[in-house]
Amino acid sequence: MFEHLDAVILARVQFAFTVSFHFVFPAFSIGLASYLMVLEALWLRTGRGVYANLFRYWLKIFAVVFGMGVVSGVVMSYQFGTNWSVFSEKAGPVIGPLMAYEVMTAFFLEAGFLGVMLFGMNKVGRGLHFLATCMVALGTMISATWILAVNSWMQTPAGHLINEQGQFVPGPSWWAIVFTASFPYRLVHTVIAAYLTTALAVGGVGAWHLLRDRANPGARKMFSMAMWMAAVVAPIQIFVGDAHGLNTLEHQPAKILAIEGHYEPSPDGASLILFGIPDSEARRVDYAIEVPKLGSLILKHDPNAPLPGLNDFPREDWPPVGIVFWSFRIMVGLGFAMLGLGLWSLWARWRGTLYDRRWLHRAALVMGPSGFVAVIAGWITTEVGRQPFTVYGLMRTAESHSPLAAPAVAASLIAFVVVYFFAFGAGIYYLLRLMAKPPQPGETQPPSRPQRAAGITPAAVGAGTEH
């Protein structure tokens, strides 16, 4: 029944499904690890038990998120060898070492300190436990750095050579491969997105509990911290996104033109198309709502600057316009909604009503999942916009696929969908159950020194309590 389908399309759908599912967990764990580090630092500095309570509250959630991220990430490596073996053979000498560095540095660092972080608060000293938390947070950042180095090389390849077998091999310097033209922009943009995603999730949980008990100190504290993050980081993310867009226009112009819906060149300044329905067959955007000159002002910082159009590029090199056109607008729209929520919280804070404004709490609750939607939309924009290439401009997606029949790819795709929805559906349900429970209202503190178990035996305990 699947023989009439295209194996390459099925493999792309499978990878898109698994990577979209996977990406939300690292985005959450990167932000949560740093949030836990801040909570523990504040507890050590102030001695206030509310920070220790929040640390324990979010530590359980982090453990589940981290585990789900690791499990879903294993599937990604599996697909490189099954569905994309030609790509692995050709690009493996470059991306293989980078992914190995991620395992040897980030994953080993996280694995080495994760147990102390999760189970050692009452068993090791405060300083050592805080060091473990810092190392886990650092590990998540290093992991993001290596993975984004791989992706940035695929987007803006540099520093490589091509040998007689047509393989991409490292050039004289690995630095040119790691620090490609787009790498700094992608790294900063993605890490900030992870922080915003976490802030909105934490703020949504805090708002949920404030709507039920506005006097809960843990809910008040987490909501306040989340709204500070949204208010400060959202405008920074918009600025970074603009810089990232200018960089993409320089190195991947067809992607930006597809995002903007510009089929025809604009010699006297391009308009900004707010909404519309792209029609690539007719090479136009139907029902377009546009602002004259604003596109050139954003992309060139000059309203009269000329811009090319997709018609200036070969038709076979166009990305799917409709997908990136709308995914980009979802991401940007949610970004401005985050900015609005942050500004609203600042106004409420200035009026001294941050914990009393029910509509602000309801808005924060609704916006709780928006960070996850935004990062998926941004990832779709980035990856679909790179099409029809796996290595931009050098290796096409149709040339990267394994010689598999469509029914085989379809069978594994169906298996992934079924397993993911059952396994990860249960995990997400458990996470929501954890978040639905309010944080501990009392400001209790962990022991000031480790609990000592050495030398204590059941017989000794029984002898001491027998009479």
How would you describe this protein?
The termini are far apart. This protein has helices at 7-46, 49-82, 85-119, 126-155, 174-178, 183-210, 217-251, 253-260, 294-300, 321-350, 358-366, 370-386, 406-436, 458-465, and strands at 160-162, 168-170, 272-279, 284-291, 389-391, 395-396. The chain has a domain at 183-396. It has 14 helices and 6 strands. With 467 residues, it is mostly helical. The chain is globular, with a radius of gyration of 25 Å. The longest helix is centred in the first third of the chain and has 40 residues, at 7-46. It has a two-stranded antiparallel sheet. A two-stranded antiparallel sheet has the order 3-4.
End-to-end CA span: 76 Å
Please estimate the helix content.
55-70%
Largest sheet: 2 strands, antiparallel
- How many strands? 6
Beta-strand percent range:
5-15%
Number of separate helices: 14
Mean pLDDT: 86
Radius of gyration, whole Å: 25 Å
Query: Shape, please?
Result: globular
**Structural class, please?**
mainly alpha
Which regions contain 5 or more consecutive residues with pLDDT less than 50?
453-467
- Largest sheet: spatial strand order: 1-2
Order of helices and strands: HHHHEEHHHHEEHHHHEEHH
